[in-house]
Amino acid sequence: METLFFIASKTFGMAARIETWALLLMVLALFGLWRGRRRLMGWSLGLLFTGTLALTLFPLGDLLLEPLEARFPARPALTMVDGIIVLGGAEQTGAYRLWGGPQLNEAGERLIEGAMLAHRFPAARLVFTGGSATVGREEDTTDPSKMVRDMWVALGIAPERILLEQSSRNTAENARLTHDLIQPQPGETWVLVTSAFHMPRAHETFTRNEWEGITAWPVDFRSGDLAGLRGIWRLDRNLLGVNLALKEYLGTLVYRITGK
User: Fold this and answer.
1) 91: left (phi over 0), alpha (psi -120 to 50) or beta
2) Which residue, 92, 170, 204, 205, shows the most beta carbons closer than 10 Å to its own?
3) The pLDDT of residue 94
4) Which domains, and CATH codes, for the chain?
5) CA nearest to 127, candidates 214, 186, 68
6) Which mean pLDDT values do the consecutive 10-residue runs of the chain (260 residues) have?
7) Backbone torsion region of residue 136, taken as left when φ is above 0, otherwise alpha when ψ lies between -120 and 50, otherwise beta
8) Are 115 and 148 in contact (CB under 8 A)?
């Protein structure tokens, strides 16, 4: 059942992406041209052009991401910390296998902030949770955690403080499998580190999986200054932001419906 949910989530995630709908509109336009249905072709091309222009001119990604990223305060006050949980998703495992060394994507702040918190609270355990999230291809699920462990050790974290959960493929499994690994005790303080746009779903999922009093530590903020011109004429950036936001809103809805 968990594997079925994982595959379904990846499939619906691809269907929710803007480029999927853009490709569908192109197909409809070509079909209209082939069948001589000018109205269908006109509507399809018109929607495609209007959507592309809107994504190019307006910071729609920022507008959608900002409510998610504002849900939890950045860098909340911390006094005592028993453990730090860093969610996977920042690793470029393909480049890591090819070139070695730490290979990070735009979510690399997750791993950096985790190490910074570990230095700030030297008695806290540092946990990385994440395996392979690839559909349809067998991969060594230890690649992400091995890369992260080597990186943290190089940054001065003692190896005995690092715990690795290597099997999870999504946020629900992050929460459940990490809980099984750690067995947190009542009264302990755990800090959850993930991208700010992902934190609402992640925090809700961990809380639902019996993590009591877990503190959100959002990083990797993507929504910029909405009063500025940062999003104007940036189709690439705005498209990425909209896709991230749609994935999170849809993911939150599905997780709530399924009780994840």
Assistant:
1) beta
2) 205
3) 86
4) 2-69+233-258 (no CATH), 83-219 (3.40.50.620)
5) 214
6) 58 79 95 94 96 91 94 95 96 89 94 98 96 56 87 97 93 95 93 98 95 94 70 83 93 86
7) left
8) no
Q: Tokens for 185, please give them.
A: 């005790």
Q: Give phi and psi for 170, each to the nearest 5.
A: -155, 180
Closest to 38 (Cα-Cα) out of 30, 26, 49: 30
Q: Tokens 């909405």 belong to which residue?
A: 226
Paired tokens of 6: 């994982």
Q: Per-residue pLDDT tens for 23-64?
A: 999 999 999 999 999 999 999 999 999 999 999 988 899 999
- Sheet containing strand 190-195, edge to edge, reads 162-165, 125-129, 83-87, 190-195, 215-219
